[in-house]
Write a structure and sequence with these properties.
Strand order of the largest sheet: 2-3-11-12-13-14-15-16
Structural class: alpha/beta
CATH class of the largest domain: Alpha Beta
CATH topology of the largest domain: TIM Barrel
Largest sheet: 8 strands, parallel, barrel
Number of domains: 2
Shape: globular
Strand content: 15-25%
Length: 474
C-alpha cells in the first residue's frame, strides 16, 4: 500500500497482512503491551456503553491486562460502587457471587451465570467462607436444597499463593475451583483455567497495585465536575466522549477537563480525521478515540450519512497523533481477531471492543433465553432510545421529552451467548491468540513493530470471502 493510493477508503475487510520473515521465538514471547501512557499490558478496551461495561467487565478485563470504561450514562452512585469494587478486587484471583448457607438452589442458581468461571461462594453464620459451588453442581441440584449442604471446601488457598502452586493443588485434588482466604473480602476464588491465564496475562495495575478503572463523561454542562469526581473516586483515566470531536466545544471541553484532572490520563473522541485528532491533542488529550459509525450497534452512518471507513480513519489519525507523541484507540468494527490485528497494524495502540464483549456473561444486561432455550443478551448503542432515555432520566419532564427527539433509532439487538465464548476471558483468550500469531506471521515481535513494519495489501470482497471458513463445506 505504500506505493498505491486506493481508489476508495478502506475498512478492515478491504485489507490483509502479507507474511514476513520472523526471527523471534515462540508466539508466546510476542510483546502485546500497548504503547499507551497507561500501565496496561493488553491492547483491549471495553467500550463505554451501558450494555458492555459494568463492574464485572471492568474487573475481569483489568485482571487480564486491559481496561474497561464505565459509561457516562451511569449515575454517580453506580460509578462509585463499580470503581470501589474494582479497586478492592484481588489482582490475580477472581471474584464470585456470595450467598448464605441457608439460601436455596432455586433462588441463587442464576448467579452461576454471572461470571465465566461459574462459581458461587457460600458463607457461614459468622460471614466466613464455608465452601464453593460450581455451575454444574448448582444446575444439578433440587431447587429446595440449601447452599450450605451443597458447598464443598476441598482446597483453600492463601491470597498470596502463586498461580503455579494453586494449579498444582487443584490438580492434585481433582477440582476445577478453590476458595481463596482473603480476610474482609469473601467471594474470592481460584480456578485451574484462571491460574493458567495468570501466567499468560499480566494485570493492569495502578501505582498501589490495584486494578485499573476508567470512567467516561459526556459533553454536558457538568462534564468537568463529573470528570473531577470520577478521579476523586479513584478512576485512573477519564474518557471524554462526543460523537463529533471536530468542533470547538469539544476542544474547549478537553481543555477544561485537562485542567481539572491534572496529570491523569485523558482520552477524548471520537475523531476520524487527522485534523480533528490534532485539535484534541493540542487541547490536552493524551489518547484519541477513532471511529464513527463502524460499531455493530451504531446507526450514525445510516441516519446521517456521516462517518468514515475504520481502517483509513485509524491510519490517518494515528499518523497525526504520532507526530505529536500521542496515541489513538480504534473504536468500532471489531468482529474477529483479525480486525484487532489490522487496527493495530494501522497504527492504533489499543482497540475498543463493544458488542463482542456485550454478549459475554460478565456484561451488565441480564442473561435471557429464547423459547428454544438459547441464551442471549440484549445490546444497545450509545445513541439508542434506551441509552438516551437513561441519559436524560435526571432532566425535568419537558427537557426529557426534547432529548427523546435526538436518538438515532433502536440501535439494539439480541446477541447470542456462545458456549465457547460465554465468558469475557474466553473472548480475550481468542483475541490474544490471534494477535500473537498475527504478529509472528507479520514478522514482528511487538505491537510497536506491528504498526511500523506490517506490510498491508488490498483485496476484493471475493478475496475476503476466500479467507472465511465454510461451516457447511461446499
Amino acid at each position: 500500500m505504500d506505493d498505491v493510493k486506493p481508489p476508495y477508503e478502506l475498512t478492515f475487510s478491504d485489507v490483509f497482512l502479507l507474511p514476513q520473515d520472523y526471527v523471534g521465538g515462540s508466539r508466546h514471547t510476542v510483546d502485546i503491551t500497548p504503547t499507551d501512557p497507561l500501565p496496561t499490558t493488553l491492547p483491549l478496551v471495553a467500550s463505554d456503553m451501558l450494555a458492555v461495561t459494568g463492574r464485572r467487565t471492568a474487573e475481569t478485563l483489568a485482571r487480564r491486562g486491559g481496561v474497561a470504561v464505565l459509561s457516562h450514562d451511569l449515575p454517580e452512585r453506580e460509578i462509585r460502587r463499580c470503581v470501589g469494587a474494582v479497586k478492592a478486587a484481588h489482582p490475580v484471583w477472581q471474584s464470585a457471587p456470595v450467598v448464605t448457607a441457608d439460601a436455596r438452589a432455586a433462588d441463587v442458581r442464576h448467579l452461576a451465570d454471572s461470571h465465566g468461571h461459574g462459581c458461587v461462594v457460600v458463607t457461614d453464620a459468622a460471614g466466613g467462607q464455608a465452601g464453593i459451588l460450581t455451575a454444574a453442581r448448582l444446575r444439578g441440584a433440587d431447587g429446595y436444597e440449601r447452599m450450605g449442604d451443597l458447598a464443598v471446601r476441598s482446597v483453600v488457598l492463601t491470597a498470596d499463593c502463586s498461580p503455579q502452586d494453586a494449579f498444582a493443588l487443584m490438580d492434585e485434588q481433582g477440582v476445577d475451583a478453590a476458595l481463596v482466604e482473603r480476610p474482609g473480602h469473601p467471594g474470592t476464588v481460584a480456578t485451574r483455567r484462571g491460574a493458567v491465564r495468570s501466567l499468560v496475562f499480566r494485570p493492569a495495575l495502578d501505582d498501589r497495585g490495584r486494578l485499573l478503572a476508567a470512567v467516561a463523561v459526556g459533553m454536558t454542562g457538568d462534564a468537568v465536575e463529573r470528570a473531577g469526581r470520577a478521579v476523586d473516586l479513584g478512576a485512573d483515566l477519564v474518557v471524554l466522549h462526543t460523537p463529533h470531536a471536530a468542533q470547538r466545544p469539544a476542544r474547549d471541553a478537553v481543555s477544561r477537563v485537562r485542567d481539572r484532572i491534572g496529570d491523569r490520563v485523558l482520552v477524548a473522541g471520537v475523531a476520524v480525521t487527522g485534523e480533528a485528532t490534532s485539535g484534541l491533542i493540542d487541547a490536552g488529550a493524551d489518547i484519541v478515540k477513532v471511529g464513527l459509525g463502524g460499531g455493530a450497534m451504531c446507526t450514525t452512518r445510516m441516519m446521517t450519512g456521516v462517518g468514515r471507513p475504520q481502517f483509513t480513519a485509524v491510519q490517518e489519525c494515528a499518523q497525526a497523533a504520532g507526530e505529536r507523541g500521542r496515541t489513538v484507540w480504534s473504536d468500532g468494527g471489531i468482529r474477529h481477531p483479525r480486525d484487532v490485528v489490522l487496527a493495530l497494524a494501522a497504527g492504533a495502540s489499543s482497540v475498543m471492543v463493544g458488542s463482542w464483549f456485550a454478549r459475554t456473561l460478565e456484561s451488565p444486561p441480564p442473561l435471557l433465553r429464547d423459547p428454544d432455550g438459547e441464551a442471549y443478551k440484549e445490546c444497545f448503542g450509545i445513541a439508542s432510545r434506551k441509552a438516551v432515555s437513561s441519559r436524560s432520566a435526571r432532566l425535568d419532564p419537558l427537557d426529557r421529552e426534547l432529548a427523546s427527539y435526538f436518538d438515532e433509532g433502536l440501535s439494539s439487538s439480541r446477541l447470542r451467548v456462545r458456549p465457547d465464548e460465554a465468558g469475557l476471558e474466553d473472548v480475550v483468550d481468542r483475541i490474544a491468540a490471534g494477535l500473537r500469531s498475527g504478529c509472528t506471521y507479520a514478522g514482528v515481535t511487538s505491537i510497536a513493530e506491528l504498526g511500523e513494519r506490517a506490510v498491508i495489501g488490498l483485496q476484493s470482497a471475493a478475496g475476503y470471502a476466500e479467507g472465511a471458513p465454510l461451516p457447511q463445506g461446499w
